[in-house]
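Thread amino acids onto this structure.
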């Protein structure tokens, strides 16, 4: 019964996430931002936020661009593309790090993935790796044309699931001159094997479910979703992994956003379960920084990918002391550690 319960929880959550935020203040933000100390107005001489929309392969993409204090479009600034976690949106952790980067002098962009958040695309919550990688390239397309951006100094920061997709994007897209990940989550590996290999015995069963969902879609039937169950605090408290337990509180309680959801189309598994962010890591020849909490139960994914990155002469693994996976999303002392390292890294290579 215990194993069955564990597998059920993994199937229900099956996703990337964030933690309990003691002291998080809930405020109505005109930009929809839900993280602490977010921009609330575009004051002269301060970091400003610019909501934008653009087309990517015919789909409308909603993004926020953060510009540094005293931004002058006639000058040249380094820029950073920030990729959000699976199930997350630009108003959460991606926005927090984009704002902190702008405070450090970078122009930063955080966009909702296609089929997710405020971006277009139907059916909703399709979560295919090829789409997410294309989202990152699309952000690069847009931001390198933005006034004041030095296209030759473009960086990439991927968070959680966005970290895995950022590794893939950087393997072939050499516009990115420096690549960083925070709490990297290898979506395909986990969708296939389960978190910490907890679902190896059900791989074929879940592939069959995904195949049936695809057939139903093709016939014009209902769209089936995975990870679409409502999770209570009591259910979350019994979860065996910090990632999912703390993620529930981050996404559903302390940093909830109406556009954020754990669910994804069941048919997406046909693509997800054949994907692995850590393959072809030797193609990354750019400087690489991979950051993870020292207590993160997802660390094994960062460790594996980092060791496979043999194509770059500049790589660093940085542990955020005392942090779990989700705590790197919002806890001030851990965010400060991550930003200190990012400022050093991007400062050196951009």
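Threaded sequence (350 positions):
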């Amino acid at each position: 019964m215990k194993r069955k319960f564990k597998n059920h929880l993994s199937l229900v959550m099956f996703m990337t996430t964030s933690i309990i935020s003691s002291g998080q203040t809930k405020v109505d933000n005109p930009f929809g931002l839900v993280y602490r100390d977010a921009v609330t107005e575009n004051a002269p001489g301060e970091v400003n936020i610019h909501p934008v929309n653009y087309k990517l392969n015919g789909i409308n993409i909603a993004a926020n661009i953060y510009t540094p204090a005293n931004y002058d479009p006639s000058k040249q600034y380094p820029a950073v593309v920030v990729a959000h976690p699976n199930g997350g949106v630009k108003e959460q952790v991606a926005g927090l790090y984009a704002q902190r980067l702008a405070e450090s002098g970078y122009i930063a962009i955080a966009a909702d993935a296609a089929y997710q958040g405020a971006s277009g695309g139907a059916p909703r919550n399709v979560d295919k790796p090829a789409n997410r990688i294309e989202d990152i390239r699309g952000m690069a397309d847009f931001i390198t044309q933005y006034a004041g951006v030095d296209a030759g100094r473009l960086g990439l920061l991927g968070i959680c699931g966005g970290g895995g997709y950022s590794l893939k994007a950087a393997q072939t897209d050499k516009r990115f001159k420096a690549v960083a990940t925070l709490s990297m989550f290898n979506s395909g590996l986990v969708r296939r094997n389960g978190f910490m290999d907890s679902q190896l015995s059900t791989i074929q069963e879940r592939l069959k479910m995904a195949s049936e969902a695809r057939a139903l879609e093709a016939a014009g039937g209902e769209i089936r979703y995975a990870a679409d169950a409502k999770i209570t605090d009591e259910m979350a408290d019994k979860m065996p992994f910090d990632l999912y337990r703390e993620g529930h509180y981050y996404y559903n309680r302390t940093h909830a956003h109406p556009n954020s959801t754990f669910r994804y189309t069941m048919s997406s598994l046909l693509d997800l379960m054949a994907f692995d962010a850590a393959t072809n890591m030797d193609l990354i020849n750019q400087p690489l920084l991979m950051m993870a909490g020292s207590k993160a139960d997802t660390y094994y994914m960062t460790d594996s990918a980092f060791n496979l990155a043999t194509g770059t002469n500049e790589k660093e693994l940085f542990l955020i002391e005392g942090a779990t996976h989700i705590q790197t999303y919002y806890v001030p002392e851990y965010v400060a550690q991550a930003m200190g390292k990012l400022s050093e890294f991007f400062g050196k290579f951009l």
